[in-house]
Amino acid sequence: xxxxxxxxxxxxxxxxxxxACGEKCPxxxxxxxxxxxxxxxPGSTVxxxxxxxxxxxxxxxxxxxxxxxxxxSGTIQLDPVVEACENANSCxxxxxxxxxxxxxxxxxxxxxxxxxxxxxxxxxxxxxxLDVVASGSTSCAF
Length: 142
Known about the structure:
Elements: H1 3-16, E1 27-28, E2 31-35, E3 37-40, E4 45-53, E5 58-66, H2 70-73, E6 75-84, E7 100-105, E8 111-119, E9 124-132, E10 139-141
Parallel strand pairs: 3-9, 6-8
Antiparallel strand pairs: 1-6, 2-4, 3-10, 4-7, 5-6, 8-9
């Protein structure tokens, strides 16, 4: 690597933050305002909307889905994450009316499943239902 490239990388990081230079910022769990409940058929694609309230330093929301307990305990864990490139010392959250979707394949067995989403703002877990039914269309609603 040439000295000029090293200087350019340092200048990029100092000028615009790591995310604009191709590096990821640390992730955090944002405040969650609402979680939708859904109905789906076995194995169908489900996109559960989550309404988030990120602070001004949080961006690039995504969602991790944990289905490992779906068959044994009937729970599906959704974990929304955002990148936080700077500190948010006095940066109140602003709720985004456009929800992000947590997408996964519905369990293969008909039944009622519990969707769990942790909300760090209240230190509680939000619980909604996923009803897997034998036939019909996939739908979700707040």
